[in-house]
Design a protein that fits this description.
The chain is an alpha/beta fold and about 375 residues long. It is built from 14 helices and nine strands. The protein folds into three domains: about 110 residues, Orthogonal Bundle (Endonuclease III, domain 1), CATH 1.10.340.70; about 150 residues, Nucleotidyltransferase, domain 5, CATH 3.30.420; about 35 residues, no CATH class. The longest helix has 20 residues.
Length: about 375
């Protein structure tokens, strides 16, 4: 038989130097059928697949561009001295930085790659034309270059689409009322409905049901064709079959609407969560802020594809969940799943790294985040 660690033996019983785990196949020789052996050898696939070869060529090109980029000369000198957070790994230049208390390995970008990353992080359907601060936070998890924050701010300020929908902040005298923090995800959620949206989607959607979890700030949004209690209940149940039914649903849609929803839930489930109407509309501010974000993102989508805006809602949700929340300081994705979100920027980074591991040098448990938030 063939030894476990080796591909073949010769007639003397000597083993070859190549370990089987480094190969993609084991060659079995039939001494009684030489023609068959020759035919089978012709059909063997040797080496890397086309996808692997393409990935290697991309990473090799990136490495060459990183070496040739004069803009990175000082960073390379720092890496040679192991100073400034710069270091080499498999010849690639990295930068180590604390992001939200965690040590992250940032791939240092040559100048020619920066516009591509900016467009993906800000202008694409995955980016959602978020503001400069959130765009910086999104990129910092994967990439770095000297003067990055200044560069990104200038890029976002020059983005015409973002400036057209830029929100003007006005100071007011409304007192800020703290919201009690639920102990677990989806114990208490806030819901609201935006619409009617003009034009309606190709499938007749004119409204969007929005839901935000008070614990993690995780957001959900489902398009609706009508505002009946039945349609709203069906949409909520679609969400709750993934998240579990909350104890309390906070809504400012009025007692009559909430009473109809309660009846619909009892009809379908035999019981109902408790619907709570805040004393003031601003008390439902958690979901109201998400509404504003969703409206701005949908505005950009409707300009480009007026009738298919409903298909872009999942991408808008991803952009919202991926970046750290301004209140918690942590992305809602991470609070819910306990790990960093892996999005298009992470995939792009892996492509240029040829699949090297170790993107994140240190991981902080979610429980520590929650202890800080509750303290």
């Amino acid at each position: 038989g063939v030894p476990e660690n080796y591909l073949f033996q010769d007639s003397e019983g000597n083993t070859g130097p190549t370990k089987a785990k480094d190969k993609e196949f084991v060659l079995e020789v039939d001494n009684d059928n030489a023609d068959k052996n020759c035919k089978e050898v012709k059909t063997l696939s040797i080496g890397h697949s086309e996808n692997e070869t393409e990935e290697l060529s991309r990473s090799d090109k990136f490495l060459k561009d990183q070496i040739d980029c004069s803009d990175l000369e000082d960073a390379r000198k720092c890496a040679e001295k192991k100073s400034g957070g710069f270091y080499f790994r498999n010849n690639l230049l990295f930068h180590k930085e604390k992001v939200l208390g965690e040590s992250v390995a940032q791939l240092v970008l040559p100048k020619k790659y920066r516009p591509e990353v900016l467009k993906l992080a800000h202008c694409s359907v995955f980016g959602g034309h978020m503001g400069a601060r959130k765009t910086i936070e999104r990129i910092r998890y994967s990439f770095y270059w000297v003067g990055m924050s200044r560069y990104i701010k200038a890029f976002c300020q020059q983005c015409k689409d973002s400036q057209l929908r830029r929100r003007i902040n006005c100071k007011d005298r409304v007192p800020i009322t703290p919201v009690a923090w639920p102990e677990l995800p989806f114990q208490v959620v806030n819901i609201d409905i935006i619409g009617p949206i003009d034009p309606p989607s190709a499938k007749g959607h004119r409204y969007v049901l929005c839901l935000v979890d008070q614990h993690t700030r995780w957001a959900e949004a489902l398009p609706l064709t009508s505002l009946t209690a039945k349609a709203t209940c069906e949409a909520l149940l679609t969400i709750f079959m993934r998240t579990g039914v909350p104890n309390v649903i906070a809504s400012d849609n009025g007692t009559n609407f909430n009473a109809s929803l309660t009846q619909e839930f009892e009809k379908r489930m035999g019981s109902s969560p408790r619907f709570s109407t805040p004393l003031h509309p601003e008390s439902n501010g958690l979901v109201e802020r998400f509404n504003q974000t969703l409206k701005k993102r949908l505005y950009h989508v409707i300009l480009e594809e007026p009738r298919s805006w409903h298909t872009k809602i999942p991408f808008v949700l991803w952009a919202y969940r991926e970046v750290p929340n301004s209140t918690t300081g942590v992305a809602s994705f991470q609070l819910l799943y306990g790990r960093k979100p892996e999005g298009p920027l992470s995939i792009l980074k892996n492509t240029w790294m040829a699949g090297q591991e170790g993107l994140q040098l240190d991981t902080t448990p979610v429980t520590l985040y929650m202890e800080k938030l509750n303290s």
